[in-house]
Amino acid sequence: MSEIRTTLITGGNSGIGEALAKKLVARGQRVVSVGLEKPGWTHDLLAAYRADLTNIEQTRAIAQEICRDHAVDSLVHNAGIILPNLLPDAKPEDILMLAQLHLGAPMLLTQAALEGMRARRFGRIVFVSSRAAMGAVTRSAYSATKAGVHGMARTWALELAASGITVNVVAPGPILTDNFWGIIPKGSEQQERMARNVPVGRLGLREDVAHAISFFLDEHSDFVTGQVLYVCGGTSLVGLGP
């Protein structure tokens, strides 16, 4: 039987993060969630913290607190914001905010957990990126920082491989979450049109992404590192159309 591991999930209170947290807890694994809100459910294997990960000092403080209280074996950086704008309305400030959330926050959290991972010679770091890293209309800040995630993950994969720590990326396509419905009206013709443009004929579910993340977290996935897995229904091949 696999050892009981502890996974830190950012944004574990909703969407993909919540689906993953429930999946791991159901398997008897410990989960630590950190985000703007605590999960709306409780479990003996679930610990929850609240922090604004766009704030460097809050992130640094919560990272130290969590790693003092828990032996974090795995980190899933799932928290993200889109901030959509066409180029004429895009703001450099958005790039700075998303760079901290998508890149700075996981750096601080990983640094806090790294000593323990190295001591145990086991670690799993998984970033939740996006198919939009390949480019998408209205996604200047989002695409840029998500593409940055891929480069940083590959760098860490090289640096940490000898310590028994793998670093990988899951890049979802259109997934039915509150983030999605914050831009595309729920049940709208736009949503239906988007689903028809996905090669597999449907939009993704948060469980689709949680399933892919759990593969990278598995103890037997130690020969896979520095990879980007698109969980996108084929949209990384053809885009989403008009």
TrEMBL record:
CDD domains with a match to the protein in the record: SDR_c (cd05233)
UniProt keyword annotation of Oxidoreductase present: yes
Alphabetical list of SUPFAM superfamilies matching this protein: NAD(P)-binding Rossmann-fold domains
An MF annotation (GO) of this entry: 3-oxoacyl-[acyl-carrier-protein] reductase (NADPH) activity
Enzyme's top EC category: oxidoreductase
Family: Belongs to the short-chain dehydrogenases/reductases (SDR) family.
Protein name: 3-oxoacyl-[acyl-carrier protein] reductase
Organism: Bradyrhizobium yuanmingense
